[in-house]
Amino acid sequence: NAGVTQTPKFQVLKTGQSMTLQCAQDMNHNSMYWYRQDPGMGLRLIYYSASEGTTDKGEVPNGYNVSRLNKREFSLRLESAAPSQTSVYFCASSEGLSYEQYFGPGTRLTVT
Amino acid sequence: QQQVKQSPQSLIVQKGGISIINCAYENTAFDYFPWYQQFPGKGPALLIAIRPDVSEKKEGRFTISFNKSAKQFSLHIMDSQPGDSATYFCAASLQTGANNLFFGTGTRLTVIP
Predict the structure, then answer these.
(1) CB contact under 8 A, A99 and B45
(2) Nearby residues of B8 by Cβ (< 8 Å), 6 or more positions away
(3) pLDDT(A74) > 70
(4) N or C: which end of chain A has fewer CB within 10 A?
(5) Which residues of B touch A (CB under 8 A)?
C-alpha cells in the first residue's frame, strides 16, 4: 500500500501561471482533504471532499479549485498563481470525515 | 483567528528528559484532541488522540493530559530520544459538520544526545 501519494514533489511557478496538484489514495477512503502549511501557522484546510462527488470549502479556499475525480483521486488547481500561494501543500484522506487523517508527503510550491 | 493555541514554538531537551508541549482552545464543542508528529520532508502522522471525557491517555512514552475546565491539553514525551526530534502539532476536532480539524501552530522538538 502506497497510502497517499502526491505529485509533483516540488514546483516553481511564475506569478499568473496555473497548475494542478495531484493526489491519490489507495486505502479506499471516502474523504479527502487539501491543506497548506506555512511557517508559524500550522496546517490550514483549503478544500475537502466528504465523499466522491462532493467538495466543500475549508478555511482558506480563495485562489484554489478542486476536483474529486473519483474515489481515489482529488486534485487541487491554482488558476493564476500568486506569491502568497508559496507554501507546502498536503493532501490527506480518512475513512469518513474524521480527525484520523492520513497525509501524503507534500508538494513544495514556490511562486515567484 | 487561531482556534488552537500551541506553545512553545521550539523546544530543546536532553536525551532521557521529559518533553512537554501545551495547547489551549476556546470552543467547547470540540470533541477529539489529536496530536500529529511530522518529520522533516514528510507529512504529519497521527500520534495519539484523546476525548474530552478522559483526563489522561498514555501510549508508550507518549501521554496526553487533558484539563477540561481549563480548556487545555498537553503532550508529554517521557525518556525523550533523538528519534523523537520532529515537529508536533496539537489539533482539535469537530466530529460533526464540515471543517473538522483545527491545528495548532506546531512545536519543533530537538532532542540532543
Answers:
(1) no
(2) B21, B22, B107
(3) yes
(4) N
(5) 2, 4, 6, 9, 32, 34, 41-46, 49, 89, 91, 93, 95, 98-101, 103-106
Q: How far is A43 from chain B (nearest CA, A)?
A: 6
Residue A30 with chain B: CB contacts under 8 Å? none
Q: Are A101 and B101 in contact (CB under 8 A)?
A: yes
Cα–Cα dist B57/B32, whole Å:
12
Cis peptide before A39 (omega within 30 of 0): no
- Residue in A41, A43, A99 closest to B34 by CB: A99
Report the C-alpha gap between A33 and A75 in whole angstroms.
Answer: 10
pLDDT the model gives residue A96: 86
Q: Which three cell numbers stand for residue B102?
A: 483545527
Residue B110's Cβ-count burial label (10 Å; 0-12, 13-18, 19+) is: middle
Neighbours of A54 (CB within 10 A): 11
Option in B4, B89, B99 nearest A59 (CB): B99
Residue-wise pLDDT tens digits, A43-56: 999 999 999 999 99
Residue A111 predicted with pLDDT over 80: yes
